[in-house]
Specification:
Layout: H1 2-12, E1 14-20, E2 22-27, E3 35-44, E4 51-59, E5 62-65, H2 67-71, E6 76-82, E7 87-95, E8 109-118, E9 130-131, E10 137-138, E11 140-141, E12 147-152, E13 156-164, E14 169-174, E15 180-187, E16 202-204, E17 211-216, E18 225-233, E19 240-247, H3 257-289, H4 297-303, E20 306-308, E21 330-333, E22 339-341, H5 342-351, H6 364-394, E23 417-422, E24 433-438, H7 441-444, E25 448-452, E26 455-459
Parallel strand pairs: 11-13
Antiparallel strand pairs: 1-8, 2-7, 3-6, 3-8, 4-5, 4-7, 9-10, 12-19, 13-18, 14-17, 14-19, 15-16, 15-18, 20-21, 21-22, 23-24, 25-26
Bound molecules: zinc ion (2 copies).
């Protein structure tokens, strides 16, 4: 009895070697209360790599296969099953669609099939981005807008993933003359890594040295889509190099609002800074270059206000520029009763604080002094006039004293000469009488002149 049981247990297990491209066998003597593991160990892949070796178990018309076998060109494929007595085992090399039209396709492979009882069917799921047997492999992340060069072993898959945003992206692949296949699959990030089959979206890249371009469009349901990129090196003997770049060709996104505000702020700040610097330097420049006028402009405006030339003085000339005044030109009159073009006087008083003609000081205190002197003389003249009028009432007016001009001379320290012309002849039969005084200012003050029939005479008293 014990011996028989042993035989039935031995019958369920097997380990057989095959050299074929297609296999289908039935296994009927299984124990439905046990869990089994069917393994395929490939010892030699088909020569030209155009197909995918695949192990399948069919139970009640339902097919089970090693999901990883779709993703990795695995040398070992494993399928667990239980609760059945009959299974159909299928092994095939599924031709990749891209190579359907190839001639001389050899799909023959060498493999071992083993069937064993399994203690427990526990296949712990791998955490993203790990995958493979015992989760020992991991998917490498490719950053957007970076170029990555990857070395891929012969007859090997390489997996990478990238996380994209709302934009559309382009994948550029440079594989030179090496034969590579690529499969890009959109993938919702979950805790468990279930690599998609590379049979989906599988593209064999051109080998004409040009860049291959694949567009990735954003899936609508997820904010950040993960794309898994599978790259397969078809070369059976050599490691090959491939460069991959993921880039966003169009910036669909509008310029962010905060960036606009920041940019405007920077521009305004820059302008303000520029203006402040400009003002500072202008002030400095003015300080350096501007010559302070000797005579304060306020004094000019207060005591020598600007007036407009009228017809009465249009025949006079400005003693600074020697040009005749024109109607409505601006002029200034000094307290010493000299006239100049406004600009001529302004220019003169930047260098000197006196009258260009008589050298009368034009500083405020000098003007006040002059006005004081004028006031006193006017008072004296008034008193004298009053005395004269009293005198004339007492004595009838003499012919010689009529139209007496009373002349008082300024005591300016610069005055050295005085020339007086009088023409009092009503018929103009006499030429103008001229009297000249020369000498020191003391000599010239308070001279009394009288007009007589034979000319101007000076009174000595
Ligand atoms: Zn002038
Ligand atoms: Zn003057």
């Amino acid at each position: 009895m014990i011996f028989l049981l042993c035989i039935s247990a031995v019958l369920a297990n097997f380990n057989t070697q095959y050299v074929t491209d297609q296999l289908e066998i039935q296994q009927t003597n299984l124990n439905s209360s046990k869990t089994y593991l069917l393994s395929m160990i490939i010892t030699q892949l088909p020569i030209n790599n155009y197909c995918l070796p695949l192990l399948q178990i069919i139970i009640n018309n339902q097919t089970y296969n090693d999901s990883l076998a779709y993703s990795i060109k695995a040398n070992i494929q494993k399928v667990y099953f239980d609760q059945t007595e009959n299974i159909t085992i299928k092994v095939s090399c599924n031709l990749l669609e891209y190579f359907q039209n190839q001639k001389n396709i050899n799909k023959t492979m060498h493999f071992n099939l083993t069937l064993n009882e399994a203690k427990q069917h526990i296949q712990s799921p791998c955490q993203f981005p790990h995958y493979g047997q015992n989760c020992s492999l991991s998917i490498q992340q490719i950053q957007k807008e970076f170029s990555v060069t990857i070395l891929i072993l012969n007859n090997t898959w390489f997996y990478a993933y990238t996380i994209l945003d709302n934009n559309n992206y382009e994948v550029y692949v440079q594989n030179g003359e090496s034969l590579f296949g690529i499969s890009i699959i959109s993938f919702n990030k979950v805790n468990v890594t279930r690599l998609p089959s590379f049979l989906q979206n599988f593209v064999v890249l051109n080998t004409d040295n040009n860049e291959n371009q694949i567009s990735l469009s954003q899936t609508e349901d997820s904010q950040d889509s993960i794309y898994i990129i599978g790259l397969y090196n078809f070369n059976s003997t050599q490691i090959q190099e491939i460069t991959i770049t993921i880039t966003c060709p169009f910036q669909n996104e509008e310029f962010p609002f905060w960036a606009t505000i920041l940019l405007i702020s920077i521009v305004i700040f820059g302008l303000l800074l520029f203006l402040i610097i400009l003002c500072h330097y202008r002030r400095q420049y003015k300080k350096i270059t501007q010559i302070k006028p000797v005579l304060d402009r306020k004094v000019l405006k207060k005591y020598m206000p600007t007036k407009k030339v009228d017809s009465k003085m249009s025949s006079d000339t400005c003693s600074v520029c020697l040009v005749q005044f024109e109607l409505k030109e601006k002029y200034c009159q000094t307290p010493c009763n000299h006239y100049f073009h406004e600009q001529c006087l302004y220019d003169w008083t930047t260098k000197q604080a006196n009258c260009p003609v008589c050298r009368q000081g034009l500083l405020e205190n000098e003007i006040n002094q002059l006005q004081e002197v004028k006031k006193n003389r006017n008072l004296q003249a008034e008193q004298l006039n009053n005395q004269e009028s009293i005198k004339s009432k007492e004595d009838p007016p003499s012919q010689t004293y009529r139209d007496l001009p009373f002349l008082q001379l300024s005591s300016s320290p610069f005055r050295t000469q005085c020339k007086i012309e009088l023409d009092c002849s009503p018929q103009g039969e006499h030429s103008p009488q001229i009297i000249q005084f020369d000498g020191s200012p003391q000599n010239l003050t308070n001279r009394n002149l009288y007009f007589q029939s034979d000319g101007i005479v000076e009174s000595q008293n």
